[in-house]
Specification:
Strand content: 35-45%
Order of helices and strands: EEHEEEEEE
Number of helices: 1
Distance between the termini: 20 Å
Radius of gyration: 15 Å
Shape: globular
Largest sheet: 5 strands, mixed
Helix content: under 10%
Strand order of the largest sheet: 1-2-3-5-4
Number of strands: 8
């Protein structure tokens, strides 16, 4: 369900972006029935990732409207695109609650895309990263 880089075979680590931000990505092909797997995966990391990016979080045959409350993970804020409609599969980001995030409006031909500017404090100022 995930892609990660491991320094130790027993304990996976999240992928690092520019050495600052740890990110885990998954094409979930429906997240509701895999939430427990995701939470179990989170416990296996030495340090929880800063960002969890998930594509196709909605099931192929959506039977009822999803709500963000069904997808919550403690310690993370959720940003999503495609939750409100029945078309498409959706894009979802979990961002650690201590990280400042701004939505960025970028014209795109793709319906299912979400651009976020992440600002993370560092000892020598701020580090901005666009996801």
């Amino acid at each position: 369900m995930h892609q990660a880089v491991s320094n130790n075979k027993d304990v996976p680590d999240a992928v690092k972006c520019n050495g600052n931000l740890s990110v885990v990505y998954s094409n979930a092909d429906g997240l509701l029935n895999k939430r427990h797997d995701l939470k179990f995966l989170m416990k296996s990391f030495q340090k929880p990732p800063d960002v969890i990016a998930i594509t196709e979080f909605k099931p192929k045959r959506l039977k009822h409207q999803l709500f963000l409350s069904e997808l919550n993970i403690d310690g993370y804020n959720i940003y999503s695109q495609g939750l409100e409609n029945y078309d498409g599969r959706g894009v979802l980001f979990y961002i650690a609650s201590g990280i400042k995030v701004s939505l960025v409006e970028i014209p795109s031909a793709f319906q299912e895309c979400l651009f976020l500017m992440i600002r993370r404090s560092e000892s020598n100022g701020h580090s901005d990263q666009l996801l």
